[in-house]
Amino acid sequence: MSGLIAYGAYIPHYRLRVKEIGSVLGGPGGPGSRSVAAYDEDTTSMAVEAARIALRGLPGTVAPGRVYFATANPPYLDKTNAAVIHAALSLPARALAVDLGGAPRSSIGAVLAAAESTEPALALLSDVRTGLPGGADERQGGDAAAALLFGAGTADAPVIAELIAHASITDEFLDRWRLPSDTTSRVWEERFGEHVYAPLATDSFSAALDQAEIGADQVDHLVVCGLSPKAVRQFAASSGAGPDAIAPDLTTSIGNPGTAQPGVLLADVLDRATPGQTIALVLLADGASTLILRTTEHLANQLASTLTVAEQIAAGDDSLSYATYLSWKGTLRREPPRRPEPEAPAAPPTHRSEKWKYSFHGSRCDRCQTVSLPPVRVCYGCGAIDDATLQPMADVPARVATFTVDRLAYTPSPPMVAVVVDFHGGGRFRCELTDSSESPTIGAAVEMTFRRLMTSHGVHNYFWKARPARRQTKES
């Protein structure tokens, strides 16, 4: 098997405090908060952001040859969502991109498929979890994504963690389910799931430890995840691993992001791990699966450029109101702006402009070096015709040149904040600002983020927006 050569997790900017739900509905409140995908985010856009974090700084020679996208909440059916991710990451046309969806267990399928690939492969785990208002799924759920890149490793991109063992146990029982036409899941009585999961988790964990030829007390970090909280806590306590080895589940900070939880918790452990440590990841979902990894001396190389899980949690905005949360999730229908709804993007021009619309490539004039956004055939600087090179701009830092707050423009979450940004090294562009509850300041640092502008006639219109820079300390 190949090893892990890069990873990244994406935690949305917004949080909903659990006590905010209780204060509105009069039900149980409680401590903590859950992460919330904004109105312009979904599992596809979050997977793109996680992948960008994982791939940042890697040489082009390790571009993924395969993309496996796992989610229990796909934006599209009968259309490959991974193809949108493939386009946004500007991957080679020969790179395979496929969906693995329907249930949280698909996350392990994506990880193992990537680990067993003969070429660099990217496992993307993403989920948006919700439930009926006031229910446990709403309070305990969370939204997030994670990216795990596996490969043989090179001098420029060495293996940072070896996958040394894995074991899975599959069992058919009614624990959690959702029909394709439903928006929320149904759950059997939790004591039943706790009873069934206990032996499955033990068998899977023991088999993986035997493969790795180690004991439970030799595990430095034990990650246990799944959508049955009692079963997760029970196994963690009885696993035989030391109490200091049990990794935090982050549920009081971001909730449980379902399909994405294994990747997010693994990323959080890798953020804190040191070389030579053993990590056991146990997932309880329609059975049990255990992965055992051992970190290498190259782990510190990744930490130098990674936006950590802890940093993203600390930067979250927990001022989101429950009414806004419900409107973003479509539970509370809000009066739309009294403006004509935008037309859905047409297929032919979208396909022709893929490098611009999805990968956010501008053009740089080969004569005068003027950068144009969107790309143009005739240079605005010197008038040269068809003498330019496509220029990737998605990861180029930018600053706000000017802005306006537009209360008349169509947007699912008014008002719209429009900004004009200047990119480092040239290029100016007008776009929306997202992930900000305040008006920006002139000169503020921003970065580009892949978002869903709107959905019209069943078509998701993906494009790029600006957001306040989250990597300022990394860039300085």
Automatic annotation (TrEMBL):
Residues 332-342 have a biased composition (Basic and acidic residues). Signal peptide: none annotated. Residues 332-353 are annotated as: Disordered. Transmembrane segments: none annotated. Keywords: Plasmid. One of its GO terms (molecular function) is acyltransferase activity. This is Hydroxymethylglutaryl-CoA synthase. It comes from Rhodococcus oxybenzonivorans. The lineage of its organism: Bacteria, Bacillati, Actinomycetota, Actinomycetes, Mycobacteriales.
